[in-house]
């Protein structure tokens, strides 16, 4: 780990670099998670955040190619644009039209999407919940919701119902689940095994304070309720769901497991997921809001 230009653990001319691109990116936990894993695995790799404004993804990808980066983690607002900029997409990234992870293979950039995989892994790991045969409701129809809908359907969910403010986007998201997908209404929430908030409602600094994706009064014991929002880690909605007797899971698990999936793709090694979980928890404990 020591290089000719630095002390032990310091990056050197031989260090393999991955980048995190987004805007904003300064508060992203991804470099922390990646670098924690690289250190634990004894790899001379480093992850660096690069603020890339909207519209600049083509220049960022060209720069990453020229600089020989081994991969990229892609966050808002670039996930859709990067899908059109890589040399090829995996089947999941193609269906979602969105890339959150770029892997350099033999000089070519492959676009993948680990959000849905991370979500399902967080259900299994965080709540021993297996989606196969279960009825699932997803509130929201943006990038995160679409990844969740597709992953739940691919994991064998019996039904994946989407509720969203804009009906047309709900149709598009529900279509990803094929024959088990449909558009629904928030009032149906009491009849599902799994209820997911995939909107920013409840996120620190997000608008519409007090607005909730579904009425917590509809939630009850026997349900798993997941809020993809992880800052704050326990949103008021999630707390109210728990107060109603539902099992409550924060979006931090999805964040950790989608990062773990990226690390697997890049390095071919098994990342220390429990350690990543501890680090992410400590970082969100320390964060304001
Ligand atoms: P996005 O693409 O902008 O989609 C946002 C969705 O929320 C849209 O369906 C939008 O409805 C809906 N929405 C926004 N404001 C709303 C409001 N005031 N009332 C009702 N609905 C509203 O965002 P995204 O990338 O999917 O992210 C959604 C959330 O998931 C964010 O909080 C993000 O931080 C979180 N997330 C977490 C993880 C994780 O690892 N835990 C990963 C990705 C995202 P319309 O279609 O009507 O506009």
Strand order of the largest sheet: 2-1-3-5-6-4
Q: How large is the share of residues in beta strands?
A: 15-25%
Looking at CATH, which topology of the largest domain would you report?
A: Rossmann fold
Count the strands? 12
Number of helices: 10
Bound molecules: NADP nicotinamide-adenine-dinucleotide phosphate
Largest sheet: 6 strands, mixed
**Reported CATH architecture of the largest domain:** 3-Layer(aba) Sandwich
**Element-by-element helix/strand order:** EHEHEHEHEEHEHEHEEEHEHH
User: What is the overall shape?
Assistant: globular
Q: Structural class from helices and strands?
A: alpha/beta
Query: How helix-rich are the residues, as a percent range?
Result: 25-40%
Q: Residue-averaged pLDDT, rounded? A: 94
Which segments are poorly predicted (pLDDT under 50) over 5 or more consecutive residues?
A: none
Q: What gap, in angstroms, lies between the N and C termini? A: 36 Å
How large is the radius of gyration? Answer: 19 Å
CATH top level class name of the largest domain: Alpha Beta
Spell out the CATH superfamily of the largest domain: NAD(P)-binding Rossmann-like Domain
Task: Please tell me the total number of domains.
Answer: 2
